[in-house]
Write a structure and sequence with these properties.
The chain has six helices and six strands; from the N terminus they run H-E-E-H-E-E-E-E-H-H-H-H. By secondary structure, it is an alpha/beta fold. Strand 2 (72-78), helix 2 and strand 3 form a beta-alpha-beta unit. Helix 1 (2-15) runs antiparallel to helix 6 (249-258) and helix 2 (82-92) crosses helix 3. The radius of gyration is 17 Å and the shape is globular. The chain binds zinc ion. The site of zinc ion (ZN) has 5 residues, from strand 1 and helix 3.
Length: 262
């Protein structure tokens, strides 16, 4: 698979021009909701890796945590309203446009590979790829409710399910070359609402993946896996990926290569 991946990556890279959005227009039986008009102002997702699950070595995802191609991945829920669950399903399934993967949402008490918790802890996180199988919950949504906007559901769910498919944070790409103002980054993430320690900030924000053994396409500042980097976090005062809310063309290309449909 590795050889195939490397051989075809360049061709696919330039053949995809836009992400597919058909599933985003699914109508959910709830048009009474008041929609928030802005995005959650503290999008901070923690990427969790199993301690014994192998080393994360790739900028866009470690191949040793990929699901088998064509897998039907079972997903269950704990918590969350019917509306919130419907939105999580809707946006999770947008990855199926490009990846040869099926997310099969099962009953709460049924065995599952991805176990979603919906709560009010203000945290979003997921384990990477098949590490999900070994943890319950394996994915957390801590700020969704019936007033959450569709854009916020889309941004957060596609990001977390990107992790569940095996993708890492894009700001860790070896070609990202982000001129971090590291003190500003530490000051922000160590404060409310995150209270992250230095190690967690280093891993989730400032980490630069080594090239050795990488599966990666070009650095993609439009990736849904990229943290929003406000201008104050950079030494040249330029914001990066400030408003990524959908699967990018390169995100689509990556999962199409990792999970080819033919
Ligand atoms: Zn993340």
């Amino acid at each position: 698979m590795k050889t195939k991946f490397l051989l075809i990556s360049t061709a696919v890279l330039f053949s995809l021009s836009s992400c597919k959005k058909s599933a985003e227009n699914v109508t959910v039986a709830n048009n009474q909701k008041t929609q928030e008009t802005s995005l959650h102002d503290a999008f901070n997702c923690e990427m969790k890796v199993a301690p014994k699950g192998g080393t994360v070595t790739e900028s866009n995802g470690p191949n040793n945590k990929l699901w088998g191609n064509g897998s039907v991945i079972k997903v269950n829920f704990s918590g969350g309203s019917a509306y919130v669950r419907s939105k999580i399903k809707q946006y999770a399934k947008t990855w199926e446009n490009d990846a040869n993967i099926t997310f099969n949402f099962v009953a709460d008490n049924a065995a599952a590979d991805i176990k979603i918790a919906v709560n009010n802890n203000n945290l979003a996180w997921s384990y990477i790829g098949t590490d999900s199988k070994f943890y319950s919950p394996s994915m957390n949504y801590g700020w969704f409710n019936d007033n959450t906007s569709d854009e916020e559901f889309r941004r957060t769910v596609t990001h977390e399910f990107g992790h569940a498919l095996g993708l890492n944070h894009e700001q860790s790409h070896p070609d990202a070359n982000i001129p971090w103002n590291t003190q500003a980054v530490y000051d922000y993430y160590m404060g409310a609402p995150n209270y992250w320690d230095k190690a967690k900030i280093d891993f989730n924000v400032l980490y630069v993946a080594p090239r050795t053994g990488l599966y990666y396409l070009a650095y993609d500042p439009l990736s849904i896996m990229h943290y929003p980097v406000p201008a104050r976090f950079t030494t040249n005062n330029v914001a990066i990926a400030p408003n990524n809310t959908k699967i990018s063309a390169l995100d689509s290309a990556y999962v199409a290569l990792a999970y080819p449909k033919n």
